[in-house]
Amino acid sequence: MADLSSNFLGIKSPNPFWLASAPPTDKAYNVERAFKAGWGGVVWKTLGEEGPPVVNVNGPRYGAIHGPDRRLLGFNNIELITDRPLEVNLREMTEVKKKWPDRALIASIMVPCEEESWKAILPLVEATGSDGIELNFGCPHGMSERGMGAAVGQVPEYIEMVVRWCKQYTRMPVITKLTPNITDIRKPARAAKSGGTDAVSLINTINSIVSVDLDNFAPVPSIDGRGSHGGYCGPAVKPIALNMVAEIARDAETRGLPISGIGGITTWRDAAEFIALGCGNVQVCTAAMTYGFKIVQEMISGLSDWMDSRGFRTIEDFQGLAVPNVSDWQYLNLNYITKAQIDQDLCIKCGRCHIACEDTSHQAITSMVDGARHFEVIDEECVGCNLCVNVCPVDNCISMVPMTSGVDPRTKLPIQPEYANWTTHPNNPMAKVAAE
Amino acid sequence: MGSIDSGIRDVRAGRLASDAYADVFSDLHPPLTRHEAFVESDRCYFCYDAPCMNACPTGIDIPLFIREINADNPTGSAKTILSENILGGMCARVCPTETLCEQACVREVAEGKPVKIGLLQRYATDHLMTNGQHPFKRAESTGKSVAIVGAGPAGLSAAHRLAMHGHDVTIFEARPKAGGLNEYGIASYKSVDNFAQKEVDFILEIGGITIQNDKALGRDISLDALRAGFDAVFLGMGLPGVNELGLEGDDAAGCIDAVDYISVLRQSDDLSQIPVGRDVVVIGGGMTAIDVAVQTKLLGAENVIIAYRRGPEHMNASAYEQELALKNGVIIRHWLQPRALTRNAHGEVCGITLDYTVMADGRLSTSGESITLASDQIFKAIGQTPAQTVLTEAGIALSKGRISVDDEGRTSIPGIWAGGDCIAGGEDLTVAAVQDGKLAAESIHRTLMQQPDKVSGFVEAVMAGNSEGASTPGQNPNHPSHVTG
Asked: For the 4Fe-4S ferredoxin-type domain, which residue ranges apply (chain A) (predicted)?
């Protein structure tokens, strides 16, 4: 049976599933329930400076995008960092860590971008026995207006500076949490690395207005008729998070930097994908907020069973296996030719492949053959784009079949077995000589 | 049971507890809630050239109306439905969807679970009719007038389309109320809460339609008078007669027209006042047979037997309807054909003898065996008959007693159109009658306005579907063809 135990920066946990810094980890009561349910670790909800805590709105904090059966697809919040006094959080963290020594407990921190502020809070956190700290440079709403959160995460120099202070004033491992609200995720990751961070975690939430109430013309959630942008998360953001994780995993400057993956992780499969792209562990929030802590049982059994089926004994056995296969477009094999193929036994004749191809792509699927409703790929027109596969409502009905020999009926050119990419393509004015 | 020996018929009203009737006769398919409509509409694949749409006799754009429901626009959805079928509300309740749109649904083919198109259609039309304004506007008056005979589905459909085009319509209806079989003929659990009259009121909101009740063709009005007084005439009087068993005593007490009985039941304010037998035998195999059998069972009959002379696959009632009867405790006996009625001392029918039938060389014959069933009530549900005399006298060409029409609903007499159950080749379905009325109305409109070339988008599409080799995807070339006589 697979061993799910995790060792991230020397922080041990029985499994790689941590709860991200968020409402589920705001107090001992919730965190203990999470540990009882089986979560490997938590990142305690972000601590602020000593003194009067922040206040939250007292109206709705969340908004969501739903499927027709109210399945939550995307989630948005305007909640700030913890609104409980620092000393209460620290006391509870100490107690919980003492009670649950085998679980990871990380403190998320957000204080003003001044050395004194960081210098002041770090010893207090270290005294709790926490296993590490996570720097909240990601929160995109409210705190960023006060020069914290994403306001720091959007300036690589600030990231580097604060990370350096943290490495200077604590022995605890430092995880730098990155905001996706930037143009190139590699810049903040490189800065964190330069500052000496032990790891990065990403993504934090994405600036978002989840919807507009058309009765009142106000963004949702609406506070007394007015709304503010929030942070978007949940299943909808997973593809964005995966790309950003991959960018860091394969960047020459940050390659090998430990990554804690966050962003829409809902099932074991999502977690496995993040780990395959190089993450050492994963953090979950929205799925727990939607279904409760019990979901970790499915994640544990699913990951374990999948690893068994693939012969992976430990998390490290498959960590990063997908990274070498993430490539720039220019290195994709232009000699690789596929054609869509429709399994007529599975086809239910809805015609979606036809109309999608006919209206919006390459007119490569029939609707009528010999007077009968019949959907079939016209190889002479098919560019292998995969649109039909994606719009087909039947699993495995349409597949993309590679052509390995003969002539491509569309281009009338022979299939070339060898790899060739854009960098050497004759149409590329910048083409390099193949021999180079 | 035993009544055949004693000759004492057990026919009583009030077989159920007085508070049980409302529950027993409640809506057969309760309407979808808003959430249920979202979930169900999400199952629709929005098929290209959708098979469901092509299976709908009125050609409703089903994928579009379902998508409109899914996008939280039930009003727009209802407009999509009603623009092709102004009786879309009733059709959502009474259409045999299991043999039309839902049979064609790709999910029926794939998994045996079609999208619930009928219930979705009801969701949208109920929404509009409950909350909305009448969605269509009457064109400026053309000054032309059209007479319509019969305020059933065909007549109402024709009237609405004609009124929308700006013509003045007068409907002559033989009965005290409009609605035709929707009002008098359909099983009450399929149309609760007086829906048929609400739908009539909704249709009349377009304006320009007058209904004259208690005016029967041949009794109160003549075809000549209509032709003289109006620019065009549409006949949609349905089938006013019923077939007799052809046995001695088939007009005696205890031998009842199913259509009449259903009509009494539908018009009743108090179902506990309707007499029903303990042993009931229904002769027939169509929707009417099922409707009367199920309703007598619901009224408290102990034994209800449908006797049909052929097998289940030959019944006009769909498999779904047959199942509905079985679920309600009705027994369906196939391969039995009436031979003689037993009458008691009062001359009332108290039993029926039926011959067993067999199919040999494609011909139905009796096997020589027979069975006698006790019956307190025998219902005749073996088909309805046209108003042949009045039509013959008028010189209208008929086919098997029904009016011959072309694919636009034109009869052999210029200026007279016809549609619905009274025409030859009709399908005896509400939805088919609606289509007949709509197509005839468009034809009347073109004729009255003398605009053969300037046709509306709808007719254009239908005609494109009809013209040889010009079959346009998305249009059903077969729609109008069923009305050809």
From this structure: 338-371, 373-403
State the residue for tokens 């903040």.
A188
Provide the total of helices (H) and of strands (E) in chain A, helices listed first: 13, 20
Nearest CB among B39, B49, B106 relative to A367 is that of B49
pLDDT tens, position by position, A322-344: 999 999 999 999 999 999 999 99
Neighbours of A137 (CB within 10 A): 31
Contact criterion met (CB below 8 Å) for B380 and B243: yes
pTM: 0.89
Distance CA B448, CA B285 (A): 42
Other CB atoms closer than 10 Å to residue A294's CB: what's the count?
A: 10
Number of domains in chain A: 2
**Range of A307's domain?**
6-325
pLDDT band per the 50, 70, 90 thresholds, residue A216: very high
How does pLDDT run across B177-202, given as a tens digit for each residue?
Answer: 999 999 999 888 888 889 999 999 99
Q: What is the CATH number of the domain that holds A398?
A: 3.30.70.20
- Residues of chain B with Cβ-Cβ distance to A65 below 8 Å are none
Question: What number is the ipTM of this complex?
Answer: 0.89
**Torsion on CA atoms A414, A415, A420, A426, rounded to nearest 10:** 20
Q: Are B173 and B213 in contact (CB under 8 A)?
A: yes
The burial class, CB within 10 Å (0-12 / 13-18 / 19+), for A251 is middle
Domain boundary at A290, A325, A360, which?
Answer: A325
According to DSSP, residue B133 is labeled: P
Domain end marker among A296, A325, A354: A325
Residues A97 and A130 in one domain: yes
Residue the block writes with tokens 């939550």: A72
Same domain, A316 and A337: no
pLDDT of B2 higher than 80 = no
**3-state SS class at B55:** helix
Domains of chain B (ranges; CATH) run: 3-26+245-381 (3.50.50.60), 34-131 (1.10.1060.10), 145-240+386-452 (3.50.50.60)
The reply to whether A139 belongs to the active site is yes
- Whether the predicted pLDDT of B99 surpasses 80: yes
Q: Is B316 exposed, middle or buried (0-12, 13-18, 19+ CB in 10 A)?
A: middle
What residue type is assigned to position A329 of the chain? W
Please check whether residue A406 lies inside any domain of the structure: yes
* Burial class, A362, CB count within 10 angstroms (exposed 0-12 / middle 13-18 / buried 19+): middle
Q: Which amino acid is at A405?
A: S
How far is Cα B147 from Cα B237, in angstroms, rounded to an integer?
12
Q: Does residue A278 share a domain with residue A387?
A: no
**CA pair distance B85, B118, nearest whole angstrom:** 13
| Cβ-based contacts of A397 with chain B (< 8 Å) | none
Mutation for testing the B interface, residue in A215, A346, A350 having most B CBs under 10 Å: A350
Q: Are residues A267 and A320 in the same domain?
A: yes
Domain check: are A137 and A150 in the same one? yes
Residues A112 and A24 in one domain: yes
Same domain, A296 and A343: no
Which pLDDT score is estimated for A150? 86
For range A391-419, the mean pLDDT: 96
Q: What residue in A sits closest to B67 (Cα-Cα)?
A: A68
Give the model's confidence band at B469: pLDDT under 50 very low, under 70 low, under 90 confident, else very high: very low
| Residue A130: partners with Cβ closer than 8 Å, 6 or more residues away | A44, A93, A97, A105, A106, A107, A172
- In the structure, what pLDDT confidence band is assigned to residue B3 with cuts at 50, 70 and 90? low
Which tens digit of pLDDT belongs to each residue from A81-108? 999 999 999 999 999 999 999 999 999 9
Q: For residue B69, count other CB atoms closer than 10 A to its CB.
A: 27
Structure tokens at B318: 């769909």
Check CB contact under 8 Å for A348 and B110.
Answer: yes
